[in-house]
Design brief:
The chain is built from three helices and five strands. By secondary structure, the chain is of the alpha+beta class. It has a five-stranded antiparallel β-sheet, with helices on one face. The structure holds adenosine monophosphate (AMP) and zinc ion.
Amino acid sequence: MSTSSDCIFCKIISGAIPSRKIFEDGQVFAFHDISPVANVHFLVVPKIHIQSLNHLKPEHEAVMGRMLRVGSAIAQDLGLGESGYRTVINTNADAGQTVFHIHLHVIGGRPMGWPPFGK
Ligand code: AMP
Ligand code: ZN
């Protein structure tokens, strides 16, 4: 299934729901997170609907690589190359996944702790 009619990120990609778009090409779409946790917090998603890392197939390898390259290029464009940034893909409940369309979080502009356990 390349799109899902009840998926909020598929609706953002199609333009049915507005977003603060940063970039798109044939494979990926990047936009600012609506609830940022740092000065810079954007998401990079594949244009095809893939629920989570658990659903990856061999044919998804190219788009997953494209997500990383686009995330890195945008982070550097936004001035984070030297100071640093974090890239995160959450999968299922323990990791805090709330939207079931794979998304790469790119977060920067502040120091971050490690390991990333809250509460
Ligand atoms: P996760 O918890 O890893 O599934 O991340 C989902 C992310 O999507 C959260 O950081 C939300 O703030 C973000 N988000 C949810 N709805 C929207 C939206 N309409 N536009 C932009 N970001 C969103
Ligand atoms: Zn989707």
